[in-house]
Amino acid sequence: MKNKRRILFVVWSLFMAFPAWLFAQNAAAPAASGSTDDTNLVKWLIIVAAVIIVVAVLALFKALNSMLKIQEINALRELGMEEAAQKLAAERKVSWWRRMMERWTDAVPIEQEKDVLFDHDYDGIQELDNKLPPWWLALFYITIAFAVVYIFYYHLSGMGMSSQEMYAQEMKQAEAAVAEYKATHGSGLDETNVTLAEDETALSIGETVYKTNCVPCHGGQGEGGIGPNLTDKYWIHGGSIQNVFKVIKDGVPEKGMLAWKDQLKAEQIQAVASYILVKLQGTNPPNAKEPQGELYEPEETAAPDAENTPEAESDGGE
Questions:
Q1: CATH fold for the domain made of 200-295
Q2: Contacts of 77 by beta carbon, 8 Å cutoff, 6+ apart
Q3: Which of the 8 DSSP states describes residue 214?
Q4: What secondary structure letter does DSSP report for 306?
Q5: Can you say whether residue 219 is alpha, beta or left, with left for phi > 0 and alpha for psi between -120 and 50 degrees?
Q6: What pLDDT, in 10s, does the model give residues 162-196?
Q7: Each residue of 234-254: b (16+ CB within 10 Å) or e?
Q8: Of 30, 92, 99, 218, which one has the greatest count of Cβ atoms within 10 A?
Q9: What is the domain partition of the chain in residue ranges?
Q10: How many CB atoms lie within 10 A of CB 174?
Q11: DSSP 277
């Protein structure tokens, strides 16, 4: 009887699911050419319809199951099996929730625990030979099935990306995001980490920036004008690449020097600062403005002590 009910339930479920499948197929076609909002609406309608169908199937199954149990009870009574009929009737009165919990936990009643009690006794502690709950076993089997599908899909079939491929893809996405950020916000270069750029590409960019923005105040050859002379070694705010970068970036408002950080990228500021120090400083243009500020001499790395060099030690040893 149970097998009959199960087969009937499967057939009925397929029969009820068929109209939903047809509805989904018919609804998806016009939605393909529609807007995103229309597509989402159709999807939600399909989901709601599917939920209603599932609820209806469950309700019909419950009613059908109840009818079959009544027929089974009547059949047992006609066969003179009153005790079995009464037992089945008593089971029918138990709520479906309780029956489901008993089925999924497979718990042994307390009065029957002596039947599953092990013989051993450890300091008065005894152990029951209970079965694993069916719900736990079901989850365990599901995880095994999932692992098999996962390994096949990601490691054997070639359809899914491996962890190495996913890592490579994410790194490419990250590099693209960094490049986009740099293009929009700059590279994070500032006066604390800027270095002197001496390659011709950077100096060419610096020359272009200088001739476009700096000539009106500092002259075409750095000789000075409204602004100070950039060809000598005298500097008002320091003559290191860090000092020049900061002045160009933040400006000197009280002296009329504009802050270029909102108009030039950090790389452009580095390039023009390097151009001033590498190409303009040390030249002797005509009509150069008088030096301003203090003489700046770059700090040089101290030469090694001659007495402590290997040669000195060797000579001393001789």
A1: Cytochrome Bc1 Complex; Chain D, domain 2 (1.10.760)
A2: 85
A3: T
A4: G
A5: left
A6: 888 889 999 999 999 888 877 766 667 888 889 99
A7: ebebebbbbbbbbbbbeeeee
A8: 218
A9: 2-93, 200-295
A10: 10
A11: I
